[in-house]
Please model this.
Amino acid sequence: MSRVRLAVLFLLVFPGLLEAAEASPWTVEDVILAESASDFQISPDGKFVVWVKSQMDRDKGERVKHLIRTSLTDNRETELTRGEHSCTWPRWSPDGKYLAFLSDRPGPKKKDPGKSRAAPRLTWRARGLHHAVPRRTRDEEEEENRTQLWLLDPTGGEPWQLTELKRDITAIAWLDAGTLLFTAQEEPTLREQLLKEGKKDTSIVVDDDPNEPPVRLFKIEVKSRKITRLSANLDRIQSFRVSPDGRYVVAIHARSLRFVYDNQIRPVTLLHDLKAGTSREILDARLNPQEIRWQPDSRGFFFTAAYTTHPRYLMAYVTRLHHHDLASGKTREVNLDWERGLADQNEHDGRAGIVVLGDGFLALLADGVRHRLARFSPDRDGWKRQFVTSQHAGNIFGFQLSKDGKTLVYAHSTAATPTQWYRARLEGARIVDPVAITKLNEDLQEKPRAKTEIIRWKGALDEEVEGILYYPHGWTKGKKYPLVLMIHGGPFGADFDAWEESWAYPANLLAQKGAFVFKPNYHGSSNYGLKWAESIANGKYYDLPCLDLEKGVDFLIAQGLVDPARLGTMGWSNGAILSVALIAR
Model:
């Protein structure tokens, strides 16, 4: 019998071996070591995009981020940075000659012959030998991992360090082709000063407003490396945007370290006039401004704002869009004609779902488990809205546009399809000729992936609830399977028809074990409008969500899918709280 006939006979007798060879099982490492992409920045000429690739470093046991340049003509990919230190915040210079970025990578070693050598320490070396090397001083250890500003030539070559500050740089932006803006603290905190003086301090600092140094705005000239402080604020700049003409900066200043949890002292928004050297508060803090986006002509800017009916707390809200005109000083809400408000870019660092064009803007609108991308153009009655059409339109979770508004890059995924980024042309409200430009997690193509379905049922208050159902691998119709509830945190959060396979929510690992996985967007979730988000206030924190979850499980049991004797629940943060509540009911 020939070898070919023997092989065919073997596969006929043991067909399962072929299936196992084609689809390797999921492992914990598949989840932990997964790659992700973010912060896509298109070059001024529209020919390249630089982005941040994140993946696990096995040796360090943590994720490391590096810069990737991708051609928008032939998709050629070039790794711009390497090593064990992360590189983030890539920003093109206006002329496209430089890329600025942030990193805590070590800079060039300085020679100081007058500096005395510290006492040596012993370290283990190969062949059982001990070798004495200088021990680093406390100052050296403290300064070792400061996040600094770096530059590189995007066509190739080694990056070079532009700053050597004692404090981390928190954000950067180009002012012009030869000048960068950045924010940073100038001085160490009181606790850091005490530690530097050798005083013991075992306390854990939650916040220390009186002794927390301000975060201020600076500029640095690329050629001379001269740094100039541009603001004298006593609070902390948490974000800023420079106008395209380079004259103004709009910055959001945090005035309280505890605002994140007590919502008492709100941030303020200031307009810094770099030409006049002045600054003034420009927006009503009660609007809760979140992110700023300038018009290309610098005459005004759009900003997102968190709207809630509660006079103080921002625990549940919808994101609205406003516009501020510099000449008149007037702020107006932009009528999106969309009750659920703007969505965040889930696959793009969670930034606001808006990109400003010369004749309007693109916006991601919140719509439950999916977003809707729309183009808004000014007309006599305010704004004309056109929903964007394409083969991927219902599942776009991140996007960026070129300066001329013609080239679009975007993130597409479904709950059953891993995320990839695409390039395409934007023609009016149509996305044309999409082509994948990333090859993230190629090894997952060989893995079995759960079939997914959007499920809707009647929950608490007899209102419709929405969720994602993951089917067991190898699901057979008519057979009943175990069910695991995967409850999202928040409660002001949501699960989407988007790829998510994380250490906290490993859906395919459980589906591989032969279970349905169910992700419900219960009352109190985001992306369903303000009424839904605020519905669990006034003592309904457990009542409505638990009823939603129970009725969702009952719905699946009634469909003949789930074995009622084999139910489980899990979740992170509020998902864990609701899991405990379900068990105790």
In short: The radius of gyration is 27 Å. The first strand starts at residue 36 and ends at 42. The CA atoms of residues 178 and 383 lie 37 Å apart.
